[in-house]
Structure formats: structure tokens, C-alpha cells
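Sequence and structure are no longer studied apart. As an example, we show below a sequence and the C-alpha cells encoding its fold:
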Amino acid sequence: MVERTSHRAAPEHTHPDDVPVPTALAALADPVRITLVRELAGSPVWTRSCGSFDVPVGKAALSHHFAVLRGAGLVEQRDEGPKRVNRLRREEFDARFPGLLALVLRED
């Protein structure tokens, strides 16, 4: 009997310095992605797994939303055992787009 192990490819990350303004704005234009960013901003670094967010989308759509956030330089992910955990790249993103995250995170 052959034992099978699943190996996920490590996610690719875009540094915020390489992100054009329209890409950053598009990533932050979706309500689900805003929810993800807000929840990450209120959580300790590397404590939130992808499945821990309360958003009204399935796993495939959630993966897509995280890919968009990674592509915009907003989120960094790493695998810890069977879970993929996340951190908001707040300092790096703020350096590239000063004040943009503060506007998104502000609740009026």
C-alpha cells in the first residue's frame, strides 16, 4: 500500500512596493476582502487560519479572495501543519500607500 501525502505549494507573495495603485484599490473594493483585512487587523499576527473567518463564501471563493489580497501585498500566508495562517502586512503596505489602510479600517 502506498501512503499518500498532500503537499500544497507555498503561496506566492507580492511585496507592496511592486503593487500599482489600481491593484491595491481593487483588492480593497470588495466587501469580503474588507472583512478579511479588518479581522486580520484586529488579531495577533499569525493566529488566524483561513477557515477561521466568518464570511459568506465557500472555500474556493475564500481562496480567491486571499490570492487577491496576497497579490495586492496586503496579506502574507504561511503553512503551519494542516492550516494556512495569515498576517496583515500593515507596515509594508502603509509604507507604500500611506493612510489607505487607516481609511479602510475606520468604521464610520
